[in-house]
Amino acid sequence: MIAFIHHHRIYGGIAALAAMLFFSCTNELEKIRFDETEDIPVAITKDVILLYSDSARLVSRIQAPLRNDYLGNHPRSEFPEGITISFFDSNQKPQIQLRADFGIIWQHSGTLNFYGHVELKNKNGSVLKTEELTWDNKLKKIYTQRPIEILDEGRMLTGQGLVAHENFEEYIILIPTGTFSIKE
User: Which pTM was predicted?
Assistant: First the structure.
């Protein structure tokens, strides 16, 4: 009977120690798991084609080989293997086509960031090339601080930085560079 009590105390002590460890680490484990969701995708989708519509009218089409969705404090969808987006006008005709090596769509703001060989083409044939571009849906503007090239009406425009209306028909080059013809 003494042996039984002795073993009971040992097993009881081990159980109490395990319970203390479990309850003392629970909050830390939850915190670690939550923090990890910032950098671990909760969903991975391959060969993505997304169609966005408003009142049964096609607004945009996104195509990408890979989409990673993230939660946490900064929910977003990332397109690490490239992204192509077409935006359509009210007549369902492509107004803007954009391609980039990497893209991010921020869920809360609806802002889109593009990186790598970014190329944007409007319905008039004007083409913008840069390494980084932000599309702000709320302001209906696109902008960059990076070097830009624009092929517009047969002429090449270059500069540092750009602000434009989202249809890319009107734009301002922040710091124009290159050779310019001036009429006297």
Answer: 0.75
